[in-house]
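// run 5 | inverse folding | seed 20
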């Protein structure tokens, strides 16, 4: 260990676990399984509508402006509604089967296993901090093969506070017996991870593989590949 940090708090989706690829693959399976190709010209047409609405809903959920049930229902209703072919039986089936199928997917962000192995061997204490739904996050983490690296998993549903709330970050710092000066948050979501950590007085690493993150201040570190963590930790 050659840094001032002892406690590393990792976001899960799209930081360690490839949510984008796993979600798209799961939706594609269900799209054809439920015969939605009879309503849409292609899976891509459906997926773009789904992703647009899902990306709008998650920040609202993180801020407590909508609940989990609304998010889960609305993101599957929206594509069919926009296409003018709403079929509640179909959208309900997509909603019912999506999370269980998603939880079984195993694609990781490049370098995730290598980096966690290195950090664990260097003596860092590693944690997951996530706004993801508890009924699937625990399964995703277990199936991924990465669970062995983490001291504890912190999910917003269990804490009853969501990132970027300062109360969320204060809770995980206290629960892990860490000091903020010895802690570092690693995440891909600007508002939930980076702004949240900064407002809580914790150093941050923005993981921006595409290099196109829209930022309003300079975080402590910006990386484009997880393996860059090994250059300063």
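// decoded
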């Amino acid at each position: 260990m050659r840094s001032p940090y002892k406690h590393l708090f990792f976001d899960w989706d799209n930081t360690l676990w490839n949510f984008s690829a796993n979600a798209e693959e799961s939706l594609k399976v269900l799209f054809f399984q439920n015969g939605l190709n009879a309503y849409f010209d292609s899976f891509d047409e459906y997926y773009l509508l789904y992703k647009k609405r899902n990306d709008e809903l998650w920040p609202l959920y993180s801020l407590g402006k909508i609940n989990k049930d609304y998010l889960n229902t609305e993101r599957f209703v929206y594509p069919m509604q926009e296409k003018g072919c709403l079929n509640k039986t179909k959208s309900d089936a997509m909603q019912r089967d999506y999370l269980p199928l998603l939880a079984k997917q195993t694609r990781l962000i490049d370098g995730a296993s290598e980096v966690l192995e290195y950090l664990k061997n260097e003596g860092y204490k590693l944690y997951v901090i996530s706004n993801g739904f508890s009924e699937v996050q625990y399964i995703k983490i277990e199936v991924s093969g990465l669970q062995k690296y983490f001291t504890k998993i912190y999910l917003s549903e269990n804490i009853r506070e969501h990132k970027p709330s300062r109360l969320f970050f204060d809770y995980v710092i206290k629960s892990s017996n860490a000091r903020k000066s010895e802690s570092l948050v690693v995440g891909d979501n600007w508002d939930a991870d980076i702004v949240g950590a900064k407002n809580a007085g914790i150093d941050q690493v923005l993981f921006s593989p595409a290099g196109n993150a829209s930022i309003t201040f300079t975080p402590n570190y910006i990386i484009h590949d997880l393996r860059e963590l090994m250059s300063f930790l």
